[in-house]
Specification:
With 477 residues, the chain is an alpha+beta fold. It has twelve helices and 15 strands.
Length: 477
Amino acid sequence: MDKRNETGILPDGGKNAILEETEERLNLFEEAMKELIRLSGSVPEKKSALSKSEMTYIYTTLTDDLCRKCPKFRECFGERQENTLQEIASVMRAACRTNHVEGSMASKEFRKRCVYFQPLIDEMSWLFRMLYQNHYWENRLTELRQVMQKQMASQYCLLRECRKMLTDGRPITGKKRRKMKRALFRQGISFLEGREYEDENSLLDITLIVKPLPGPKKTDGIARALSEIYQKSIRYSQTDLWLRSGKNRLTFVEEGSFRVLFGRKHCNKEGEEICGDNFSFTNYNKKRAVMLLSDGMGVGERAHEGSRKLIEAFESMLEAGICEEYALEILHNSLLMDSHSEFSTLDIAVISLKTGTLKMMKAGGTATFICHGQDVERISPESLPPGCMVNQQFELKCKKLYDGDMVVMVSDGMLDFETMPEIPFRMEHILKKIRTNNAQSFADRLMEAIPVPDSGHDDDRTVLVASVWEKGRINVG
């Protein structure tokens, strides 16, 4: 039975019932996913070489089907048995390294002495291919099971986060509720209900359901009232400042102690009209500043499309409230299932506006630099782009940033000069010589300072800069 009233809005009792049912369903689904992960058990490791039993099978098949018919059988498997076994084992070891069998893998002496040498190699090659194909399909099945298990784990984590968002926090009641009603009423706004909670960064989140009295009303008046009540700097989390008539569900967040300003500069490869690099700057809910850089495979439009799709997919998950680690894991698992995907790197820098802490995740890409005065720290990558390997680990590094620090993220075209023998210095030398606190000016000057080979740049070049400032101390000279 539909519980909606004449206005099409559910009464408070109906809303609470739906929220309780949603929470219960999420809880049941979460428990089901947890049980599926448990039942899936541990996934066996991929096989990298022939096992002892498989080697024995090849040896037994060769001797029973072929060697016993040879007139030199008693000689080869009598007084020369140890030498014969060593020759066969040597061929199989070489085959495991190259994934095929050929006659040149045997010694000249053995090739001359063996009566049935070519039939022996042909039989050994057939047996090896058969076992190698078995290995291939077993490993493919193992990879599929690993991907499915990782997907289930990611879905479980996402469900847990969604349920946590529904149940976290506490309702605004008692003296604080009465104080809030009075403060908002003076703004011409009726307070209906609200919840408050602290996020993982200890920043306050406040969700209100309000209804404006006749006349246009803005959210900045609510933010000022909340700042006075909580004695914190509170801001509306969205960009739309005007309230619509009827009920409004609004989220306000506590502002952190830091602000981040961005700058960027990019240049295409010589002769290309489109840059294969893509990037993104975003402040999410005034709590964290996120800087993304993706370098597509190759150059031109094809590379541009690959890096663009990667950035947009990652941004969509961040906008849905998924944390960066889970978002990268989900993206990686999805790419593993796509046999036609081309690899694009993904560099992620997340700056907490509460603490000024930098969290970096590098999936391929090149070095990132942190500039603190005249000190420059290079963070070098060690992992592959997302979607390359099943059991892939991504780097996660955290650094504390201070007032005036710069985070400089570049694509690999910016570091090509470091491989030129006639250039004696590295990127750190150039960064130390740039004298500006303005993020955009820093990016422009860095692009101009990069040495250009006589033949011109043979790759796209992108530089992103994030300057970190404590509130009230921003200096963009």
